[in-house]
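Design request, tokens follow.
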């Protein structure tokens, strides 16, 4: 059981942007030695991220890593322009 919890809600311009961020960021699992659990969901155009852990230090480390990845994801979406409505390239 974890003692600490952080909930982050990240707004995106559209639901599709939030889905892209979700698909990219959910792939990076937290290291087991970090003792942090992360869960992501999309609610409309919001990416909702919940972190839970036993220590403030491990939570801070997990948050910092996630926010770095989130910034990179957002910068990449900005660089490539608006996404198509549906990914159908499979």
């Amino acid at each position: 059981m974890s003692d600490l919890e952080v909930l982050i809600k990240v707004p995106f311009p559209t639901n599709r942007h939030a889905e892209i961020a979700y698909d990219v960021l959910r792939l990076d699992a937290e290291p087991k030695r970090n003792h942090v659990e992360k869960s992501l969901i999309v609610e409309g155009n919001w990416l909702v991220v919940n972190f839970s852990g036993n220590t403030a230090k491990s939570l801070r480390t997990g948050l910092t890593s996630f926010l770095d990845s989130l910034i990179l994801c957002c910068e990449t979406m900005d660089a490539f322009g608006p996404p198509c409505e549906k990914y159908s390239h499979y």
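Comment from the thread starter after seeing the answer: thanks! The first helix runs from residue 15 to 25.
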